[in-house]
Amino acid sequence: MGISKSTVLFEKAKQVSPGGVHSPVRAFRGVGGTPRFIASAKGAELLDVDGNSYVDFCMSWGPLIFGHQDQDILEAVQAALFRGWSYGAAEPYSLELAELITSSIPWVEKVRFVNSGTEAVMSALRLARGATRRNKILKFDGCYHGHADSMLVRAGSGLAEMAAPDSAGISDAVAADTLVAPLDDLPALELIFEKYGSEIAAAIVEPIPANNGLLLQRDEFLHRLAALTKKHGSLLIFDEVITGFRVAFGGMAERTGIRPDLVTYGKIIGGGFPVGAFGGRADLMDQMAPLGPVYQAGTLSGNPVAMSAGIAMLKKLKRDCPYAALEAKTEKLAQDLQKTGAQVGVPVTVQRYGSIFWMLCAELKEPVRRHDVVPAIHRETYARVFHKLLEKGIYMAPSAFEVSFLSTAHHDTHLSAFREALKESLGEVKPTK
Length: 433
Ligand SMILES: Cc1ncc(COP(=O)(O)O)c(C=O)c1O
Prior knowledge:
This protein is of the alpha/beta class. The protein has 13 helices and 16 strands. The radius of gyration is 22 Å and the shape is globular.
C-alpha cells in the first residue's frame, strides 16, 4: 500500500501552518497518527481525500444536528449567496434570526451576533465587567469557554481558587482576575463566594461541561450557583455553545429552569457556519455600543450567508422538534455500546445528555462529574480503540476527552455499523493473557 494522500497533505500542511492545522485537536495529538483530510461530507458520513468513508460521530463538534449538507440549510445558503455575501451594513437577515431567538427564549431579551463561540464569551465577559463595575470572573475547572485570555487559565497550585495561565502569552494580571472553582463541589463554591462575592462580575459555566468529557452536573449544584450569583450581585453566564438548541431549543437553561443573566451561543445558530452570539437581559445588553459604554464590533458579524443558514437551522429545529427522538436514539446507542463492551470483556461506559455522548473505555462506579477523576486507563485505551474504529470506518473525536454527537441523519445502519466496529475493535485491543 502506498503512502496515503492524507499523509502527503499533512506533511505539506505542516510546512505552511503550525502543526499542519488551524485548531489544535485536529492534529490527532491526543490519539497519535495522521489526521484524515476530509474532502466532503453528506448526511452522517465523511469522505476523505483517499476515498475512505466514515460514519461521523464528531459532526463538526456539534452544530450539525440535521447532518452534513442538510437540504433546507443548503437551499437557504444558496439563495443567500445570490444576494451577495457581505454588506457591512444593516440587513434584515440578522433581524430575522434575532427575532427567532428572542421570541422563543424569554431570558434572551436581546442578542448580538459575532463570529465564534470564543468571541461570544469574550464579549459577554466584557459586558459583565462593564455592567457590574467589578473585575473578577469565576469559572470552573474542566469547563472550556474558547480561547479568550481570561478563560485560558487553570486552577493554581496555591490557593485552590486562584488561577494560573494555561497558555504562554497570558499575563499574570489577566489570570489574577479569574477565579477557578472545582465542579460538583458545593462547599468550595460557598467559600469562594464568601471570600470574593462582592468582587465577582460574573460566574461562567458550561451547564453540562462537554469539553473534558461529558461532566454531568447535579441540578442542585447549578441551582446553588444561580442563587449565589444573585445573592452577591454577580451575573450568571451560561455558556451554551454546545448545549444551546442541542439539548432543547432553550438549551440547559430550559432544561434546568435556571434563568441566566447572559447566555453565549456558537456554531449551532449558524447551522455550522461561523457564528456566535451573546444575549440576555435587555438592561444589560443595552450597555453595549452604540447604546452604552461597552465596546464590541465585527466586520463580518451578522454575515448574511451565515445568518441565512442559522435561520434555516432554527426554523427547522422549531418545526421538527427532533429532541425527544434524538435523545431516545442516543440512549439506545449508549446502552448498546456498553453491552458490546461487556460482551467482549473490555469495560465501556457511556455518559450521555440529550444527543451528546462520551464513550469511556473504563468501568465507572459512579458518574464522572469532574475531569480529574477520569480513570487513567481511559486515555490509553481510547487512543487504541479510536484507531481501530477509524480503520473500520467510524470517525470519533480524535481525543479521549471530546464528546460525540448524534444527528437526525444517523440511521439504524450507521448505529449498527458503530456497534459492529466497536465489537471488533475492542476484541483487537483486549489484552491477551
Ligand atoms: C462551551 C464552549 N464555549 C466556547 C467555545 C468556543 O467556541 P469557538 O470554537 O467557536 O470559538 C466552545 C468550543 O467548542 C465551547 O464548547
